[in-house]
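#help-structures

NK: newbie question. if I give both the sequence and a SMILES, will the prediction place the ligand too? trying with flavin-adenine dinucleotide
OV: yes, paste both and it writes out the complex. here, I ran yours:
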Amino acid sequence: MASTRTQIGIVGAGPAGLLLSHLLAREGIESILVEDRSRTYVEERIRAGVLEQGTVDILNQTGLGERMNRESLIHDGIEIRFNGTGHRIDFPSLTGGKRIAVYGQHEVVKDLIAARLADGGVIHFEVSDVSVNDFTDTAPKIRYRKAGEGNEIACDFIAGCDGFHGICRPSIPEGILTAYDREYPFAWLGILAESTPAAEELIYTHTDRGFALLSMRSPTLSRLYLQCNPEDDIARWPDDRIWEELQRRTATADGAFRVPEGPILQKGITPMRSFVVEPMQHGRLYLAGDAAHIVPPTGAKGMNLAVADVRTLTTALVAFYKNGDVTRLGEYSARCLRRVWKAQRFSWWMTTMLHLNRADSPFDRRRQIAELDYVTSSETAMRSLAENYVGLPFDDPVAVN
Ligand SMILES: Cc1cc2nc3c(=O)[nH]c(=O)nc-3n(C[C@H](O)[C@H](O)[C@H](O)COP(=O)(O)OP(=O)(O)OC[C@H]3O[C@@H](n4cnc5c(N)ncnc54)[C@H](O)[C@@H]3O)c2cc1C
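OV: that's the protein plus ligand as structure tokens.
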């Protein structure tokens, strides 16, 4: 078995793993990434697309902003539409000038991979049989196979950034982690379409037919979602049915609004779930991003939380390597979870406020409309939504260089 050594072994080259490797390299800390998919696959995997102000800031501060600043769409607000009428929530005026950027997660991944490889970073793509070993003593190891050959990475710490279906979290012995889980009785049918975005900003709609979200990835690519049943089969959603349903769920009372249609490039159904494990660390294995928690996408928090986790982990690892200080490593899980749970609350709240739950009583439906009315008419309520949407401030005073 070929053996190499590094300081941090990272499993998973999604946003969490790649950004961690990038931030560590800037601090002079070595890492090696292993990823079971190909580079092309991870660079083309369409997922999240809303970057909080803090995510934009960290990418800019660490030299990753060039293409993002050129190609991203900066949004100053969102629209919430119900009863056929739209209500805009203006972020800068409610949050002291904060905004969001629309820039696909796969574009962030492309920028990160390019930066890591340009800096001499090591990413092993298309590996198999990955395992994490000996992380409860001081010499953890990642083992994997590449082109049929066995390999081992000896390291000081392992970062489990391998997403919800990865192997790191299940490698922690039973009884250590507590999982908090909620499944929702709906899913999102998402499409990527070659069509002009319906509006300059995202539109969230609540109707008696269910929820819809009109988003975008560029001036010529729309990302559009429909609430559907988790058991729905995508084969039952031909393109015509998708467009018809989008038109019905986004119609305005005056009948003037139309979603621009175009060829559908990708479509898929994603179930909605809230999930957190506590703690996010065991021994020298630290979980980050979707490996530790997932949120329903309504609050646009998934990738932003992954970024926040690795920011916290970087700060802790820098304190360890520069000053021999283990305090922040010990605090890693608690620090991350404070933010994670607030993002869980916000994502759950946006989801339950906007989706049609067929089990709801007529009382619940009226309460839901009252909540939408309140959140779009009270400045205090709008400020709370805006503050969470653009990303809560970090309570961590240490900035990443
Ligand atoms: C289908 C889907 C759609 C989504 N859509 C949205 C959205 O519209 N809006 C939103 O805000 N959020 C969305 N999210 C959430 C968001 O994309 C995630 O929160 C984000 O990807 C988290 O980043 P991560 O790096 O933690 O995990 P991931 O991006 O999942 O990265 C984990 C990486 O680990 C790799 N990996 C897995 N197992 C192994 C292994 N055994 N060995 C080596 N590598 C491994 C994976 O291939 C992957 O590259 C979506 C998520 C999914 C799954």
